[in-house]
Amino acid sequence: MSVALSNRFQGGKAFGLLKAQQERRLAEINREFLCDQKYSDEENLPEKLTAFKEKYMEFDLNNEGEIDLMSLKRMMEKLGVPKTHLEMKKMISEGGY
């Protein structure tokens, strides 16, 4: 879908459409969690899911459904624990993150 968007739109318009598409997809995932009885006892679930969605959207900039190494590196920097590429790769290989 992102390829089709980039062919028709460029710049901010394409990015805005990509983020709107991502918002809808993540909202659907959140609805699934809210309807699942396994999570019915979870305190403040709607608020937690909203917070997770917002943070995820902040770092999944291309809407590929995953956070790549550069996005993870940027996330760690924003959290105040910057890491080098080598440190990031080591953490991932060790399963630390």
UniProtKB/TrEMBL annotation:
EF-hand domain span: 47-82
Gene3D superfamilies reported for this sequence: EF-hand
Keyword set includes Calcium: yes
SUPFAM superfamilies to which the protein is assigned, alphabetical: EF-hand
Compartment(s): Cell projection, Ruffle membrane
InterPro entries documented for this protein: AIF-1_EF_pair (IPR049025), AIF1/AIF1L (IPR042433), EF-hand-dom_pair (IPR011992), EF_hand_dom (IPR002048)
GO molecular-function term, one example from the UniProt record: calcium ion binding
Gene Ontology BP term (one): actin filament bundle assembly
Keywords: Calcium, Metal-binding, Repeat
One GO cellular component, as annotated: ruffle membrane
Membrane topology annotation: Peripheral membrane protein
Main subcellular location of this protein, as a coarse class: membrane
Pfam families: AIF-1
Name of the featured protein: Allograft inflammatory factor 1 like
